[in-house]
Amino acid sequence: MADVVLNDMSRYSDNEIMKSLQLYFREKSIVEAAVYAGITVVAVVLMIMYVTKKVYGFHVPGTNNQLLYSIIVSFVLGFVADIVIDKLKIFGSTLDEYYRIAGAGLWGALAIVMSVIVSYIVQKYLLPIL
User: Fold this and answer.
1) Angle in degrees, CA 4, 23, 83, rounded to 5
2) How far apart are CA 6 and CA 10, in angstroms?
3) With contact defined as beta carbons under 8 Å apart, do 34 and 112 qualify?
4) CA–CA dist 39, 26 (Å, integer)
5) In the chain, what is the greatest distance between 2 CA atoms, to the nearest angstrom?
6) To 5 degrees, how large is the angle CA 100–CA 106–CA 109?
C-alpha cells in the first residue's frame, strides 16, 4: 500500500526526495514494487521477531511495553537493512538518486517501524472486534 502512495507522490510531488523515486517506479509496475516492498518487510520482520524472542522472550508484541521493545529493535534492524539494500544495490541502480538525496537508513527504519505499529494496532484493536 505504501508503495502505491510513494509511486503517486513521486509523480506529483515537488519534494526532491519523492521525485528521486521516479526512476525506480518508472522501471517497475505498481504490483512489482509492492511485491518487492512486501518481501523486504517480511524479511526484516522475521529478523525482528527472532531478536525480540531471543532478547525479550516474545515473537509478537502483546503489550505496550513489548511494542516499545519491538519499535526499538525494528528501528535498528530497519536502519541496517536499508543501508544493506543501498550498498548491495538489491533493487538495482534505480534507487541511487534516492539514496544520494535521502541517505540510507532513516527512511527505511521508519518504514519498518510504521509497519510494526500498524500491525500491532490491527492485531490488538481491530481483529478482536471482527
Assistant:
1) 80
2) 6
3) no
4) 20
5) 45
6) 130
For 13, the 3-state DSSP assignment is coil
Q: Is residue 10 within 8 Å of 25, Cβ to Cβ?
A: yes
- For residue 93, what are the domain limits? 2-129
Cell of 28: 517497475
Of the candidates 105, 102, 110, the residue with the CA atom closest to the CA atom of residue 82: 105
* Residue 122: predicted pLDDT: 94
Do 93 and 26 form a contact (C-beta atoms < 8 A)?
A: no
Element (H, E) at 16: helix 16-19
The total domain count for the chain is 1
DSSP 123: I
Is 33 within 8 Å of 44 (Cβ atoms)? no
The tally of CA atoms less than 13 A away on the side-chain side of residue 34 is 10
- List, for residues 17-64, the tens digit of each pLDDT value: 999 999 999 988 888 988 999 999 999 999 999 999 999 999 999 999
Instruction: Give me the helix-helix angle, 106-121 and 30-56, nearest 10°.
Output: 80
Provide the pLDDT for residue 94.
93
